[in-house]
Amino acid sequence: MDSVRYMNRIRDYYLSQGYEKPYNWAHFEDVPFANLEKPLSESTVTLFSTSDVSIRRKDGDALPAAETTVGEVYSVPWNTPTEELYSRQESFDRYATSLDDIDSYLPLNRLREFVQAGRIGGVTRSFHNINRGYSQKLMMEASAPAALAKCREEGADVAILTPV
Amino acid sequence: MSLVARHLEENGIPTVIIGAARDIVEHCGVSRFVFVDFPLGSPCGEPFDSDMQSRIVGAALDLLEGAEAPRSTVSMPLVWSKGETWKDTVFTVEQPFLSQEQVKNWEARKQRYRDQKLQS
């Protein structure tokens, strides 16, 4: 079966829900391309997602503002035990799947295994979350430079991005 | 996410996106993309199938090394194990994408963002 044409599907869906102005998806003719500087087996890999993963807190403990502010990029230590993490993301196909297994959208353990196998040199100290927003301007002017700064701070050579 | 990937590439950091919304990612235009034809929420494989997840992440690593030009897409030859009816029902009136409570949360987040902008 062909893949879902989300741009059409989402436009029709939100028109049916009473939202009048269709979303204008980002589009570019030119696409930047960076080459690997060294073999992956010597490279440090970082990971960005939009899964809004947080560390479980005690009831009543507020989430840090950085984790709830649109456009922000926040970091979580990669070595946090997986069972202490959970996703706050609500925008996914809740009828077809779940966010119960973190590696199905944020492959922390799978990438660790690739480090152990020598396929990649290492992973960064943290993984990162991009608090997705609908403003492309905000994404380009705030989130993208913040993501680049995270890469530089933690010595990432390459980045894997997993949009949920 | 594609906009972030593009910015990293412009600044010398190679990227690969693992995602399920092929049309959106390719419309934007990115360097490397592993397309996984699964429901939104499971781009890196079915929950609790670590072998499949390793295959997908491994394909992303292969693409990081192997791609020679932008707009390199690899399509994973995988089919969602519970069938593909989700493709007919996602984002339909019969199956609201967000619950009413989730829509309220979403509207509240948008409002907070507007307030933030006004303050800055």
Task: Tell me what you see in this structure.
The complex is a heterodimer of chains A (164) and B (120). Chain A is α/β, with parallel strands linked by helices. Chain A has one domain (37-162). Chain A has 3 helices and 7 strands, in the order αββββαββαβ. Chain A has helices spanning 6-16, 108-116, 136-153, and strands spanning 44-49, 53-55, 73-77, 85-87, 122-123, 126-130, 158-162. The longest helix of chain A has 18 residues, at 136-153. Chain A is globular and about 50 Å long. The model of chain A has no long low-confidence stretch (mean pLDDT 94). Chain B folds into 2 domains: 2-81, no CATH class; 90-120. Classes of the chains: A alpha/beta (164), B mainly alpha (120). Chains A and B meet through helix 1, helix 2, helix 3 and strand 7 of A and helix 1, strand 1, helix 2, helix 3 and helix 4 of B.
Secondary structure elements and pairings:
The complex is a heterodimer of chains A (164) and B (120).
Chain A: H1 6-16, E1 44-49, E2 53-55, E3 73-77, E4 85-87, H2 108-116, E5 122-123, E6 126-130, H3 136-153, E7 158-162
Parallel strand pairs in A: 1-5, 1-6, 1-7
Antiparallel strand pairs in A: 2-4, 3-6
Chain B: H1 2-10, E1 15-19, H2 22-28, E2 32-35, H3 50-66, E3 72-75, H4 86-89, H5 100-119
Parallel strand pairs in B: 1-2, 2-3
